[in-house]
Amino acid sequence: MVWAKFRCRCRWLGVCTLGIAALALAPLKVYSAPPLNELTPLPAPFLLAEIIRGCPRAEVVEAYETKTYLAYICQTYDGQFFYRGVNKNNGDQINVMDVLSTDGGTYYATNGAYTYWVNRQQLRVTKNGKTIFSEPVLR
Questions:
Q1: CB within 8 Å of 111: residues ≥ 6 apart
Q2: This model's pTM is above 0.90
Q3: Quick one: 23 exposed, middle or buried, by C-beta within 10 A (0-12, 13-18, 19+)?
Q4: Fewer CB within 10 A of the terminal residue: the chain, N end or C end?
């Protein structure tokens, strides 16, 4: 039914049928792309800089940086707080909901056996209460 309406319109205009036929006969140009092994990749830190900064779809409450990690305390638009940690070397990240804080300004978030602690002095990760990672905060 739709084709019949289109066909009638084309006959009425008298040009559509010839125009479509001309397009079908036009030669196609084929461009070759370089092989994947000849492409020059962008440096990894350049690519990660666009990905890892801040709190996507949330507001940054606190931001910390160590030699290896960026750590953020984020607040969603509905008021929930979460911890976001990003490895600066490879872009690996973790988001842990339900951040708590101490009176001394330390934030912590627990994800199973792991607890992520951060304050102005250090970032620390514990597993079952035992410290498995610690780095001083640079800023």
A1: 94, 96
A2: no
A3: exposed
A4: N
Give bridge partners of residue 131 from the DSSP assignment.
Answer: 126
The backbone region for 57, taken as left when phi is positive above 0, alpha when psi lies in -120 to 50, beta otherwise, is left
HSE-up of 22 (CA within 13 Å, CB side)?
5
Residue 42 has pLDDT above 70, yes or no: no
